[in-house]
Amino acid sequence: MSLRKTTRLTAVATTQMDWLNDLPAQGLSAAQTLQWLQLWTEQGLLRHIDSALAAQLLRLDGQASPALLVSAALLAQMEGRGHTCLPLADLCTPPVALLAWPAVAVDGPQGLRALWAHLPATLADWQAALQSSPSRACSRLSDAPDQGQPLVLGGTAHEPLLYLRRYAGYEQRVGQGLLQRVSEPLPVPEAAARRWLDRFFVPSTKAPAETDWQKVACAVALRARLSVITGGPGTGKTYTAARLLALLLALHEGDSPLRVALAAPTGKAAARLKQSIDNALTSLQDQVPEGSGLDLISLIARMGPARTLHSLLGARPDTRQFRHHAANPLDVDVLIVDEASMVHLEMMDALLQALPATARLVLLGDKDQLASVEAGAVLGDLCRDAAAGRYSADTAQFVQTVTGQTLPVPYLFSGAASALAQQTVMLRESRRFKGAIGQLALAVNRGDAAAARATLLTSVGASPRPRTPAAGTAHPEASTLLALQPNSPQAVCELALGSSGKPSYADYLLRMQQGPAGQDAEAHTAWVRDVLQAFERFRILCAVHQGDWGTQGLNAAVQKALANGGLLHVSGEWFAGRPVMVTRNDAQLGVFNGDVGVALPNTEGKLKVWFLDGEALRSVSVMRLAQVETAWVMTVHKSQGSEFEHTALVLPPGGAEVLSRELVYTGITRAREQFTLMEAEAGLLEAAMARPSVRASGLAQAWALD
Fold it and tell me: Which tens digits make up the pLDDT trace of 199-224?
């Protein structure tokens, strides 16, 4: 936490709540508890909505206990941090680690420990406090009749969990829906499946004992209406999904064609999914024998474009409801969702409600990436056993029969195997990240700070300060990694200008200045595509929005630097070359949250924002795009689903509390060929790696994974 905020906390704490010195012997009242929570809100430790929830509960139930009010405020705070529930066990002692507040907010006279002295000390006492008196604030998940209380107590007797009502509903439906899809086995024509799999997966140069996990993933996906394929960058998730589609088409029976849909959380991820699947199916057609009747090219045409989940479900303005739901399901037999780590609990609930019971759902994603911004980490919960495998003897026998592959003994499980684990396959070999970027990503992922730092220091471009090569010397463009510890955000601007010799924003701005090669529409289209492709070569990522080292400060600084360098001519809000990110779904315009485009003139000289979906272009007038923000710099969260030739990750000073291992790993794996780490303070990489993110969830209990 910054020195400014810590000083503010101290000042507020020493001037308020004198009534604490006069607490009655019987302890804290509900009204005094609200005062305490309001103080924390004024200090910036809680959001206004957190303390407001507690106040609302006291209005609903005048007998609400201080414990209930405090737990409600903390539950709302945890929801804002991505958790779907609050484990009551975390409240038996002051939740110092859970909240990660500064020392003055923990140990001060009005701090966390001082309040906890007046709250229950045991799990049983907390449960009793939440359910004491005929309360209209909290109920048990199993209570009947349900009176619609805002808080719901679920979980088990040994691991009770407190929910906001709607999240209890989401989690219950998602848990039941996913479990039902893996619990109903489907018939598999094993001999036919073996023939096609052997054709789609040509013998490799691997040692005979090595397992082809891609082939295994296709096989196990045949057995149920849910399959999960996880793996890091370059492990071939979409390559595998394309072969699974070809296999499903080859085994499809009936007169009606196989209806397939592709989707992802963002427009960029959807476009990449479509391009990858189309390319893989096109090349796979060459392996299909003549006369077999298997036409993968027609499947490409029938699938149509990949869509964002919001677009697929039919997002409607000013409502959380979608056009497709249980009463109006999607018209699909197979749905493939890429970048599933970004799918939050509410979206997964909506997706499962809209998916026909007979449809297959295939989830692709990297379990180690950042979870969604909104509450929930469904893919992480699904993949809890992915690394260990935990496959049953039946699964091992099925895989042997259908693929000829023998599952390694360490991945087998002799106990009561989870049905979800049987439908989850982790791809374990990266074909792209075998160099320095891959080594760095793996070291970060396993929490090996020494190995991560060593990988950076041994790279050619490692340097404590940004540097400009002397005249006559080569730029360090050959180095895959560059590590900088800049004194100011100006170093980020220099990187954007191309001082490192690596891909930068100068690339696309110079192409923009050159203009189209001709006056016709075809030349203009080629120019727009060239500019957008050059823009996609480089991106600056950061961890926060506010401050000089956040998206707001850095976007302004980079824009000013590019203008001063003669690469931009800024006049007003809109100007040629401005990159923007859509921040709100607008189905009528065909743009969705996370879409990134660049403002360029059309053939008539009028500015439009152009978006690139694979090779296809689409544009929207700047006058119609109200919900956008400048996007020279974006958060790591917003970059998910994208890849860039050169990615720069900025870690802000004093930012250890907002950094995590998953954030750094996700930032690194956005880079295809070159990666630059910019630490505003020494040791930020190690601080982030020491903070793996864990989200509270009850899905594991619902699935009985333990």
Answer: 888 865 555 568 899 999 999 999 99
